[in-house]
Amino acid sequence: MADIFDYLEWRGDITMDAVPFCDADRLILSELAYIDFENEEARPLGELCREMLKKIEVVRQSGAKMKLLHHKKDEELLFAVAESPRFMNLSVAHCESRICRDREEQFGAMTVYLPDKSAICVFRGTDWSIVGWKEDFMMSYSEALPAQRSAVAYLTRVSRIHGGPLRVTGHSKGGNLAVYAAAFAGKDIRARVVDITSLDGPGFCEKVTDSYEYSLVSDRVRTFMPRASIVGVLFSRTGKFTVIESRASGLMQHIPYNWEIMGGGFVAASEQDGSSQLVEESFNEWIRAMSTDERKLFIDTVWSVLANLKINEFGDLLDGKNMRAVFKNYSALDEDSRQLISETLSKLRGCAKESLRELISAARAKKQSGKPKST
User: Fold this and answer.
1) CB 281 within 8 A of CB 355
2) Separation between Cα atoms, residue 61 and residue 59, nearest integer Å
3) pTM
4) C-alpha span between 3 and 291 (Å, rounded)
């Protein structure tokens, strides 16, 4: 089945003047939002891609660790987009990127001006920073994360520069930021947002989904998630959900390069995988079983272990030496902290077992209902 690159080969030579902006285009821009283009003034996307390719080559020749790419296929995407008449002349502006450990914020965004006179704010998802991953878990108890407040400020700023229709989108956490920005940017801006799309983005804590502001945009929110979604099912669901096909398995389905594309959209799946349902039901039941203070204390305690080791990148956490240091630091925690982590994880295991029993029972009931009745 076709992927992003097949789509670019098929439709990349057709401008958006001839065939309007579509979901496959949205996915491509959401992946490009992980790249640090670093320009404020509007510039052609093709130029930005070529400049980034030159930077990548300089870093490669220097032998330094590559930190310019989010995924190994990003370089191939930059090449393809730079030569694509559909994308190369799109104006890109207001690119932002920052990681602030003190504020516990990881944020990135860019704005693309489309031929239909609309501007689409594309928010970056979680990168490989430990700060970014902690911020994701903070969604379980916070109704206004630093990155979410930044998303509101960003959309507000763009709305003052661009007077036409607005669109918002993003992959992973970027989808969450897109929804949040549209809901909380204010009445006049909210009225101008014509498109709100989350690409396998997590939901929100109850305070957000129960808010008046969210209720005003919920009917405009679209969320796409792969069959075995892990990220998109976390916390309260947002908007209209469409389950789609991915040619990968497990967590790798989250990666946009694995999403199956047909025409300008995604290949719809018949239903959500059992593994995804298990994560959704057990994780969210686990979250609901804890108070807001308990959620915060657990997350702060776990991340304090990583902070003591000065681990900044998620990839560094997977290093064997660092993993041993993590366990050593865990052992050095006071007894109350160790007990908190142990008991909280035990609750998660209990929720997972109960959810699994319910899924098995439901599957058996479905199977029995499909059997022909004996005469």
Assistant:
1) yes
2) 6
3) 0.81
4) 42
